[in-house]
Amino acid sequence: MKFENKVVIVTGASSGIGEGVAKMFLAEGAKVVGCGIEPAMHIESENAIYVQADLTQYGQAEAVVARAVEVFGRVNKLVCCAGVTFIGSLESTSSESFMRELGINAGGVFNMCKAAISELKKQEGSTIVTVGSDLGVRPIPERIGYCPSKAAVIMLTKCIALEYAPHIRVNAILPGLVRTPMIEQRFQEAEDPKALEEAYASLYPLHKMGKVSDMANAISFLSSEESGFMTGEIMHVCGGSLI
Questions:
Q1: What tens digit of pLDDT does each residue of 101-157 get?
Q2: In whole angstroms, what is the distance from residue 243 CA to residue 238 CA?
Q3: Is 35 in contact with 52 (CB distance < 8 Å)?
Q4: What is the 3-state secondary structure (H, E, C) of 147-181?
Q5: Residues in CB range of 50: below 8 A, 6 or more apart
Q6: Do the beta carbons of residue 115 and residue 64 sit within 8 Å?
Q7: Contact criterion met (CB below 8 Å) for 38 and 107
């Protein structure tokens, strides 16, 4: 198995992309430390633990790493999936909301990487994968906080990759819309779910939305030796939206 006996921290592991990524690593033999703001994750395995944490607080990010070392002895890999999407324009978004979104999406990645780096440096073949967004390079209306926060994740990824090469590889994926439970709920609540689904699909040259497994597969590749000559790379997993 690709990640046998590797210890992987996955943020945002209680839902969506993070949950799918945690399940992928478990299936590939890893020990998984999930974390997030929710009280628990929906995964039960002797090879997985969960730590509730607000990653905007550096001390709580440190606690996640400490728990990983306490239970599994080390940290080999980090995947930063946790994030939020607030909707609003410059005029409709409060300063507090803007800073909160930056704090979660970019600050949370900074805190988790900073907390984990000393343990990652102790292992050979350590990797970090962050989850940005195609909207980190392609602005759309009503995402005045989200787009800049994901742009920050992209540059943060490159900075950390440069600082820690050649010992730790650091890469990012840029998803488009992914069929997470949050998106599925939008379909359920829509007056015309089929029309909304078609509208979302039409945003992409591949004319479909991404699946959680698409994101997990990309993260698996970037976390493995299959991508051993890649660092500081930004992998577009967004259906061709950036062509």
A1: 999 999 999 999 999 999 999 999 999 999 999 999 999 999 999 999 999 999 999
A2: 10
A3: yes
A4: HHHHHHHHHHHHHHHHHHCCCCEEEEEEECCECCH
A5: 13, 14, 33, 34, 35, 36, 40, 41, 43
A6: yes
A7: no
Would you state the structure tokens that stand for residue 19, as one six-digit string?
């949950």
Which structure tokens are listed for 68?
Answer: 């990983």
The question of whether 146 is a catalytic residue gets the answer yes
In the block, which residue shows the tokens 């306490």?
Answer: 70
CA 119 to chain centre: 19
- Helix, strand or coil for residue 68? helix
* pTM for this model (two decimals): 0.96
Helices (H), the chain: 16-27, 58-72, 95-102, 108-120, 146-164, 181-189, 193-201, 212-223
Q: How far apart are CA 41 and CA 228, in angstroms?
A: 31
Do residues 34 and 51 lie in contact, with contact meaning Cβ atoms separated by under 8 Å? yes
The amino acid present at 99, given as its one-letter code, is M
Active-site entry in 50, 146, 164, 204:
146
First to last CA, the chain: 34
